[in-house]
Amino acid sequence: MAIEIQVPKLGLTMEEATLVAWKFSSGDRVLKEQILLVLETDKVTYEMPSPGDGLLLPLVAAGSKIPVSEVIGYLAADEAEMAKLSAAHPESGTPVPERAAVQPTAIEAGTAKAAPAPARRVKASPLARAMAAEHNLDLSLMDGTGPAGRIIKADILAALTDKQGFTAKGTQEAAERAPLSQKEIGETIAIRGVRKIIFDNMFQSLSQSAQLTLHTEASAEALVALRDRLAIDGQKVSFNAILVKTAAMALRLHPRINASVDHELIHVWKQIHIGLAMEANDALIVPVVRTPDLKTIRDIDREIAELIRKLRENRLSPDDLLNGTFTITNLGFADIDFFTPIIRPPESAILGVGRIVKKQVVKKDTLILEPRVSLSLTFDHRIIDGAPAARFLKTIKDMIEDPVLMVG
Q1: What is the pLDDT of residue 268?
Q2: Strand 16-22 and strand 35-40: pairing?
Q3: Could you state, in chain order, the average pLDDT of each consecutive group of 10 residues for the chain (408 residues)?
């Protein structure tokens, strides 16, 4: 019996998703748990495993927006069932490209062959398909050198070599012809998918709140010493784990910072859930650590490590990103000192952390060299006044300089 392929509900607030790509073409045999397709919600990109074994019959094209639980395809048990399903759904069954895009010319796809008929079935290894998707190559325009004409890794590498050579030559010739006063487009990036979400959220953040940023510095001696003391068998916890714990305990003392705006209302949250900004494929993702005020620093570190693993393996679910009440963004890895972080709606504040660097400071009338860390707090001045925000930032500074205050 045929297996229905439905859009899963990946989070409590999810209502629809965009079908980014099918990983197999119509008629391909798919095994259970193989990555069947890629979905994109307003929070994450999700690689959906196949719900079973069978021959794929896709009903929806890549690029379509689909409500939760809608049937977008079938897995037929055999050829006879595939024929029945195809007859029942005459609009389906055409090969599905790796990416929804305008069909490239043969030379753009990395081969000098003319484009084949649209109904051609593509045979390619999973690795070749993944490489083609990454480099936006159209497999239907390529001939394979593997068994039975199957496209393999060597074919993709050859196509990429041809494509790069053509592009480099064309770019050089264009540069030689172009006058010095001319400007040419080197790359055009569509504002869509995750980039569109960031685009809209950041505009909303800056256009619908009154943001102000306060900056300060703290001694990082105690922070570094605490990290060393918490190490087990030489394995140190991350600075982010300590910072998340610090911010959580400071929010306990300043609960009005742990708030959101809802039209004419200010919601002060009972729970503290801290988001930690991370980079993934040139996009900003903010997984959330739940109730870090009730956890140890080592527990928080393990939770952050698991979120990072899920991010790298593209396994984050919308629930991993929901209901944050405060955010930390750490740019110390990039040698950044001070910066102006942007609030994540509907939160009211965000803490930016810079690098730890040794600086000359005066203590007890003596010039000494000590590690320092920069802190930047952006807050929504509509609901948080400057003085309470400054006191909150000072509490974070004091706890960094004397971690005992976190348990006081």
Answers
A1: 95
A2: antiparallel
A3: 86 75 92 89 79 92 86 91 86 49 38 43 73 80 76 80 55 57 74 69 78 96 95 92 98 96 90 93 85 96 95 84 94 94 93 96 92 97 95 98 89
User: In this structure, what token pair is assigned to residue 160?
Assistant: 């990429």
The verdict on 148 and 267 lying in the same domain is no
The residues assigned a catalytic role are 381, 385
Q: Are 92 and 120 in contact (CB under 8 A)?
A: no
Q: Which two tokens stand for residue 53?
A: 């074994």
d(CA 239, CA 224): 8
What is the number of domains present in the chain? 2
List the Cα angle 254/260/264 in 5-degree steps: 120
Does 187 map to a domain?
Answer: no
Here the CATH number for the domain that contains residue 239 is 3.30.559.10
Residue 257 domain-assigned? Answer: yes
Buried residues in 22-38 as b, exposed as e (16+ CB within 10 A):
bbbbbbbebeeeebbbb
Structural domain includes residue 178: no
Whole-structure pTM value:
0.62
pLDDT of residue 99: 40
CB 92 within 8 A of CB 57: yes
Distance CA 403, CA 226 (A): 8
**Which pLDDT does position 178 carry in this prediction?**
56
Query: How many Å apart are CA 132 and CA 130, to the nearest integer?
Result: 5
What is the chain's Cα-based Rg?
Answer: 26
Q: How many CA atoms lie within 13 A of 124 on its CB side?
A: 29
Amino acid 98: pLDDT: 45
Instruction: Write out the residue range of the structural domain in which residue 254 sits.
Output: 193-407
